[in-house]
Design a protein that fits this description.
Two copies of one chain form a homodimer. Chain A is built from six helices and seven strands; from the N terminus they run βαβαββαββαβαα. Chain A is α/β, with parallel strands linked by helices and about 190 residues long. In chain A, helix 3 packs across helix 4. The first copy, chain A, is about 35% helix and about 25% strand. In chain A, strands 1, 2, 3, 4, 5, 6 and 7 form a seven-stranded mixed sheet that branches.
C-alpha cells in the first residue's frame, strides 16, 4: 500500500525519507484545524483531532490502495499551547516563557487505511528541558531566523539544541513526527 | 580562537556543522586509546580518559590559539561495554542483547585551551530504551548495513529510530557528540 503524508512540513518529509520510507505528500486544506474550545481546551485532544482532520481531508482525495498519515505537533507550557510566533517580539515572549523550565511537546497522529476505511488516532508526548536563557542568547537566536516558523519558537535539531540539556521521550516527536509511534501505527493498520 | 575537533567521525563533524560552528578536524592517532583495565573497568572513566587522550594528542600538534575538542562514545549494557561489531554475527549478538532493555550511552568529552594549557574533562550520559526485536527485524537491520560501523550496532538517527520508543537525556549524545555539553564546556574554557 502507498503511504501518503498529509502534511506541508519539510521537516516531516525529511524524517520519513531518512528512514527509507517510500511515500508521497499531499497538503491538507488550511481549514483542517480543530477549535481548542471544541476540545475543551485539552491540548492532547486538540493535537489528536487536528491530525485526524488533516488525515481525513487527504484520505478523501487519495486512492483506495493507500495509507494516509496525518500529524499535528504542539508545544505546551503548563496549560498554555504555544503556536508559531507571529514575529520577533512574539518569538522573544515564547523563548522567555520556556527559559529555565520543562515543557511538553505533543504530536497527535492519525493513520487511515483507505482500503478498509479504518483509522487509528493516538499521540506521543515528550518532555523537553530548557536551560535559563540570557537576553543575548534570545536576541542572537531570533536574529538567526530559526524560531520563525516553529511551534514554540525553537528547533531542537538546529541551534535550539544549545538550549536543551536533555529530553524525556521520543526525540523525533519534538522535530515533528514521532517515527517509532508512526511506523508502529502504520504496521498495525496495514495488518487489519 | 579556532576550534579543532579531534575526531575522524563524519557524524561528529556533521553535528558541529549543523549548529554553525566554525571548526577544523584533526584525526587523533589510533594509539590514543585507554585500556579498560587501567580505568578499573569503569565505563565513564574509560570514555573520559579516551576523550582526554584524543584531545591531548591533537593539542600537541595544534596551534597555540586553538581549542581542541575530543570525544569518545560508548554503549553500556549493565556493566558490559559494547563497541563496534566485528561482523554481522557480532552485530546480531549485540542487537539481541539490547532488545527489550534500557542501556546507557556515555560520551566522554575533553576540551583543551591550548593558549593557557588548561583542560576540562567531563561526560554526558543518556538512557536509551529498545523495544523487543524480532529475528526478522534484526536480520533486516543488519542487511541494511547501518549497524556495521556503530558502537552498539545501531544508529538512533537512522533506521535504528524504529527500535527506540524514547530516551532520557541528550539525543545528540547518542549520535556521538553531546552538543549542549560540548558548547558549555567550550564557553567555560574560552572565558578562562
Amino acid at each position: 500500500m502507498k503511504i501518503i503524508l498529509a502534511s506541508s512540513s519539510p521537516r516531516r518529509r525529511e524524517l520519513l525519507s531518512h528512514i527509507g520510507v517510500d511515500f508521497s505528500t499531499a497538503v491538507p486544506p488550511a481549514s483542517a484545524e480543530a477549535s481548542i474550545e471544541a476540545c475543551r481546551y485539552n491540548p492532547t485532544e486538540f493535537a489528536e483531532r487536528n491530525s485526524f482532520m488533516k488525515a481525513g481531508e487527504v484520505a478523501k482525495i487519495s486512492p483506495k490502495d493507500s495509507i494516509v498519515l496525518g500529524a499535528d505537533t504542539i508545544v505546551v507550557l503548563g496549560d498554555v499551547i504555544l503556536g508559531k510566533p507571529k514575529d520577533g517580539e512574539d518569538a522573544k515572549k515564547m523563548l522567555l516563557a520556556l527559559s529555565g523550565k520543562m515543557h511538553e511537546v505533543i504530536t497527535g497522529v492519525t493513520v487511515i487505511n483507505n482500503k478498509i476505511g479504518r483509522s487509528i488516532t493516538s499521540h506521543e508526548s515528550t518532555e523537553v528541558f530548557f536551560k535559563k536563557l540570557s537576553s543575548e542568547e534570545i536576541d542572537f537566536y531570533i536574529k538567526s531566523g530559526e524560531p520563525m516558523d516553529k511551534a514554540g519558537a525553537y528547533a531542537i535539531q538546529g541551534l535550539g539544541s544549545l538550549f536543551i540539556p536533555g529530553i524525556k521521550g521520543c526525540f523525533f516527536n519534538v522535530v515533528g513526527l514521532p517515527l517509532f509511534k508512526c511506523m508502529s501505527m502504520i504496521r498495525d493498520i496495514s495488518e487489519d
